[in-house]
Design brief:
Elements: E1 4-8, E2 12-14, H1 16-28, E3 32-37, E4 43-45, E5 50-51, E6 55-56, E7 67-70, H2 83-94, E8 98-102, H3 106-111, E9 119-120, H4 127-132, E10 136-137, E11 142-145, E12 148-151, H5 157-168
Parallel strand pairs: 1-3, 1-7, 2-4, 3-6, 7-8, 8-12, 9-10
Antiparallel strand pairs: 4-5, 11-12
Length: 169
């Protein structure tokens, strides 16, 4: 049976490359992708990509997915202190599911408490936020610690996609 992957992205200013690289790699390997955001129409990436998410983040049931991926970009800061985003991440973590976060979205996992004491990376502009939340920031392009995969952002989009694909098989 195909793996089901939830991708959470900001309504505005998600990183197109991080989204498309991950989606393309996962779909090529047979995963079914569902996109969640705060609105179901008109999501727009930093490079101009437009898409209509499949469902609202408030309607997500984490039990319906085998993995959860938080897509980065400056807009992902809308989820840093979002209770529902934290519930999704914590539920997936408690179930041992693969959780990915790229770029600025890594802060969502950190604030949710998932990176405390774990190796993680993220966009260079947010590294202090990760450290304050107890993450062991490495600055590597990709960091895998248990079921959690983090990346620095668009410069590591392909590597992030490959790591997700390998972990979700």
């Amino acid at each position: 049976m195909a793996k089901s992957v939830l991708m959470v992205l900001a309504h505005n200013n998600f990183r197109d490359e991080e989204y498309t690289a991950a989606r393309d790699a996962l779909e090529t390997n047979g995963a079914k992708i569902t996109i969640a955001s705060t609105l179901r129409t008109g999501a727009k990436g930093t490079q101009g990509l437009k898409l209509n998410p499949d469902l609202l983040i408030d309607d997500v049931n984490p039990d319906d997915y085998d993995a959860v991926v938080f897509i980065g970009g400056t807009g992902s800061s809308q989820y840093w202190h979002d209770i529902k985003a934290h519930e999704i991440a914590n539920s997936a973590n408690k179930s041992g599911k693969v959780i990915g976060a790229s770029s600025h979205a890594t802060v969502t996992l950190a604030v949710a408490g998932l990176l405390k004491g774990r190796r993680a990376t993220g966009h260079v502009t947010v590294y202090e936020k990760l450290i304050v939340q107890g993450a062991k920031y490495t600055g590597k392009k990709i960091e895998i610690d248990g079921n959690i995969i983090t990346s620095t952002g668009a410069n590591a989009a392909k590597e992030f996609a490959q790591a997700l694909t390998q972990a979700i098989k």
